[in-house]
Amino acid sequence: MKWGVPMDAIILGGMIASIVFIAPGNPLYLLIYVPIHSIMFLLCLKEPNIIRLCTLWTMTKLRSNLRHGVGAATSSPALNTQGKRRFRK
Prior knowledge:
The protein has a domain of 58 residues. By secondary structure, the chain is mainly α. Helix 1 packs antiparallel against helix 2. The mean pLDDT is 77. The N and C termini lie far apart (63 Å).
């Protein structure tokens, strides 16, 4: 942790600032890192591992293709039909 922000957040902020710097080519665009770092600092005041938690969330819930159909993160394409009636009597 440096300057109140974990290394994951510093690397993420540096990547965003470098992409913004490369697009126009003006070195003054590197100053965009200051507000990015401030936002990361404010997020990390509440929960120091917020970047790691967001990374874990994207690796589980966001990657699931059937999240809306099944109601949970799953890698299986089969839908859970237990407890549901298939045929009407």
